[in-house]
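Recap from last week: sequence in, structure out.
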Amino acid sequence: MPPAHDTSPSKRSDAQRNRDRILRAAREAFGDRDANPSMAEVSRRAGVGMATLYRNFPTRLQLLETLYATEADLVLTAAADPAEDVSPGDALRAWLGEFFAFAASKKHVAAELLTHMDEDSPIFDNTKTRVIAAGTPLFDSAQRAHEVRGDLDLEQVLKMLVSIAAIDGDTDYQEPILRTVLDGLIPPPSLVTSSTATRGTKHGDNAVTRN
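Predicted structure tokens:
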């Protein structure tokens, strides 16, 4: 009879640490805008053997899918835990910055994933749905506070950020473009006044109707 695999807590803990090290190494390796790291390079950076790497991620595609999903989870966590004592608009802009960092650092990962699957693949569709659901409370709160334009929705804003992340150039090149877009989310006084007046009119009409 072959020996049973050791599934003691210490072994499971070692396995989880190895998996975490691999994902951290992959994050760093694929975070380089011009890099196309091999599995051997990820193994070297993680300080684990190739056997350990392939035991955790049998294929490069599985590693990329896990890395993409894990990084997306960080964006969702940031939406659920905004900084305290900041305005709704600032909270939204901080989260949009987190989303942009994700989109910019993972564009090569996404591009490679797209060579194996289409844009309707669950990994993309589910991530999009979850990100929009996570960010909507922040976006709605900022709109109610008149700190974000009322003629935009969150999906439009996220698409703008993804487009900026796809622009060739380093962070210094993309940063002023990003700031320009985020500044453009602030509604001009004319829009705020118009929105307030419209709501006041509707409120008055309702009062007349009730009378």
